Amino acid sequence: MICAFGGDPKKVTIWGESAGAMPVGLQMVANDGNSEGLFRAGFMQSGSPLPVGNILQGQKYYDALVSDTGCSSASDTLQCLREVPCETLFDAVNQSPSLRLSSYDAFVIAWKPRADGVFLTDDPQKLVQQGLVADVPFVASDCDDQGTSFSLFTLNVTTDTQFEEYIKTYWFPNVPSSTIKEIMQYYPANISQGSPFDTGTLNALTPQFKRFAALQGDAFFQAPRRFLLQNRSGKQALWTFTSKRFKTLPYLGSVHGSDMFNVLAGGDIVSYLVRFVSNLDLNGGTDLYWPQYTTAEPNMLELLDGSIQQALTEDTYRADAMAFLTKVLLAYPV
């Protein structure tokens, strides 16, 4: 099919943003990292191999779906689901928790990818840890304030006690209380340390909003990205960038998805992407030279507002906090 569109099947780059980037990351660890030559590079914007567990974690959602569709008494519940009217199945699925910006429990997701022992032989981050990753060049990136939009509907959580109860219930139900306390120390209620980052005391919708945004953005996006980069450093060509554009957007800052404006408008990241797809090298033309990431030199391209729109920095921010989150999520995947 690629040939039918004039493409070269030997030069496929898989690209995606958010729910498109996460499958790119999962394809890279699928089949124990054996891509079977189906793609030669990956480009992930706001997504990477997820901190999720095995398929048994989804059993309660399957059971609820079976019940809501009237299939509980069937001898073969899966076949029953295949035969129920589309509208019935659709309505039942919509009762399941999903990744929604308008949801109080935004990151409780029923039908997310999980290790099945076949396509994903282990938890995705454990596959990264084991080195079972496709040996192809890749880019992994994030927006600076990934968690803000997902935290807008937790505004009734205003105290430390309520925050602790929330993350214990919706993020870390099996994690010891002492570990929860440590997470809270790494992500304190000090609003000047929260997200939108680098905005001081601004954008604090509630005393806990910026704390929520920092923790949730790091747990689901930033920490998994860095974990992937650190584990693959020295093994293949890899790059990373952060988008800090739209930082002055009230309460949201450089919000999840804001990097897509760059892509849809044909901005500078598209120039880098086109070169990468063409020859596996991001550099050339008049754009700022973008060096590869290594653990010794964790180079990161910054996309900025203002007269200077590109700069280089190091991917070292919130290092201890993200390392601790990664340790917890490896032990207790969501």
Short structural summary:
By secondary structure, the chain is α/β, with parallel strands linked by helices.
Compressed to H and E, one letter per element, the order equals EHEHHHHEHHHEHHEEH
Radius of gyration from CA coordinates: 21 Å
Number of strands: 6
Assign a percent range to the helix content.
Answer: 25-40%
Distance between the termini: 37 Å
The CATH architecture classification of the largest domain is 3-Layer(aba) Sandwich
Low-confidence runs (pLDDT<50, min 5 residues)? none
Count the helices. How many? 11
Q: What's the CATH first level of the largest domain?
A: Alpha Beta
Oligomer: single chain
- Across the major sheet, the strand order is 1-2-3-4-5-6
Class by alpha and beta content: alpha/beta
- Average pLDDT for all residues: 95
The biggest beta sheet, please? 6 strands, mixed
Protein name: Carboxylic ester hydrolase
Family: Belongs to the type-B carboxylesterase/lipase family.
Pfam families: COesterase
Keywords: Hydrolase
Explain what you see:
- The chain is α/β, with parallel strands linked by helices and 334 residues long.
- Helix 1 links the parallel strand 1 and strand 2.
- The mean pLDDT is 95.
- The protein is globular and about 65 Å long.
- It has two domains: 2-53 and 119-331, Rossmann fold (3-Layer(aba) Sandwich); 55-113, no CATH class.
- The chain is built from eleven helices and six strands.
Which key terms come to mind for this protein?
single chain, 334 residues, alpha/beta, six-stranded mixed sheet, 11 helices, 6 strands, 10% strand
